[in-house]
Design goal:
- The protein is of the alpha+beta class and 371 residues long.
- The chain folds into three domains: 1-154, Arc Repressor Mutant, subunit A, CATH 1.10.10.10; 167-276, Arc Repressor Mutant, subunit A; 280-363.
- It has 13 helices and 14 strands.
- The strands form five sheets. It has a three-stranded antiparallel sheet with strand order 1-8-12.
- Helix 6 crosses helix 8.
- It is elongated.
- The N and C termini lie far apart (70 Å).
- One of its GO terms (biological process) is DNA replication initiation.
- This is Initiator RepB protein.
- Residues 38-181 form the Initiator Rep protein WH1 domain.
């Protein structure tokens, strides 16, 4: 429940209140339909949040009513969500009004947490909502000033998807994984189990094997959905006996007659390399030339750049031991390892991110054994 010191940020409107600045239910419903789109900054995708499934649906319907390209969006505007709209994107028909009423008591206290730094201990935390209103089966949300920059005046570094594509997704984890897939569609992405726990709202106490199972189920639900315009393939990577990473690739689904999802990169990224079209077999048994090993080892060894080199070091630098203590020895270790086709296969996501193409390397002949 909302405490007394928060009361000024909260409105519970009744039939007797002056509602002149708020849209009537009938008018608002006529302005929204399931062709609406959600547009949000990529920086918001990896933030931690504690929203329930129906709270997340309410937030997304409200976001779909924002003109993200309009520089004149009012910071104090309320975006109204009805039970009918919730039902249209998957909420249970008989409980939609209850979900709205519950959200009046909970959404004000929901927050966004963004972490920074190599150890993830630096953080910003802020509210999703600065004001919540309720009247006649509708809830009105005013987004906080901290959240609005991730939802308005967006020109780059964002995702865009038709809200009707989420109507068959029935869990927070699946919906958040869907948004990650939109972000990385046409590419291959490698993430740690720890990263995915935070993004998918999976409790930290869950074992890594449980997280792998949840991600597998999320991918299956996305692939089964008839309104989603892509499909996702996952590979689960072990370090020793423990699952540590998940690699997923997102590819277009042909012959789906729906508006496409879209991922727009940051303005300082010249292009997003299309990873679709390469098979697992393309990456096997590759022999890099000396110049290729030297060039990509130089790029991968830049573990302080906050980019590909940083992510690569997060997975492999412990394996280098003392050789990883200096920049030159770390580069030398990488260059030596890239002579092994098995390591090239292990590092394929990072190599791809740096522009390496499998067809540029020589295939090593592997003799097939017969029984």
């Amino acid at each position: 429940m909302v405490s007394e010191n928060q009361q000024q940020e909260f409105e519970l409107l009744t039939d007797d209140d002056d509602w002149s600045d708020s849209p009537k239910a009938g008018k608002k419903n006529s302005l929204w339909n399931t062709n609406a789109v959600v547009v949000k900054s990529n920086d918001l995708l990896t933030a931690k949040t504690n929203l329930t499934l129906n709270e997340l649906r309410i937030i997304l319907v409200a976001i779909s009513k924002i003109d993200s390209m309009n520089p004149e969006v009012r910071g104090d505007a309320s975006y109204w969500v009805s039970a009918k709209e919730l039902r249209e994107i998957g909420s249970e028909r008989s409980k939609a009004y209850k979900y709205l009423q519950n959200a009046v008591n909970t959404l004000y206290n929901r927050s966004v947490i963004r972490t920074f730094g190599s150890n993830g201990k630096e953080r910003d935390e802020f509210r999703w909502i600065s004001k919540v209103s309720y009247r006649s089966g509708m809830i009105g949300l005013t987004f906080s000033q901290e959240v609005l920059p991730f939802l308005t005046r967006i020109r780059s570094n964002f995702i865009r998807y038709p809200i009707k594509q989420i109507s068959e997704l029935k869990s927070v984890s699946t919906l958040r994984f869907f948004e990650l897939c939109v972000r990385w569609r046409g590419q291959v992405k490698k993430m740690t189990i720890t990263e995915l726990k935070d993004i998918l709202n999976i409790p930290q106490k869950k074992l890594n094997g449980d997280v792998a199972r949840i991600v597998r189920e999320c991918a299956a639900k996305i692939n089964e959905a008839t309104k989603i315009d892509f499909h996702v393939e996952c590979e689960f990577v072990r370090t020793g006996r423990k699952f540590t990473h998940i690699i997923f690739s997102v590819k277009n689904r042909p012959n789906i007659l729906v508006e496409r999802t879209q991922s727009v990169p940051p303005e300082d990224v010249p292009d997003v390399r299309d990873l679709v079209g390469y098979t697992d077999e393309d990456w096997q048994n590759l022999t890099l030339s000396d110049s290729q090993r030297n060039y990509f080892a130089s790029l991968l060894s830049r573990h302080n750049d906050g980019g590909v080199g940083n992510r690569f070091a997060g997975e492999f630098i412990n394996a280098a031991g003392r050789e990883g203590y200096s920049q030159e020895s770390w580069k030398r270790w990488i260059e030596n390892r890239l002579a092994d086709p098995k390591f090239v296969y292990e590092a394929r996501v990072y190599l791809h991110d740096l522009g390496f193409k499998p067809l540029s390397a020589v295939k090593k002949n592997v003799k097939k054994t017969t029984n």
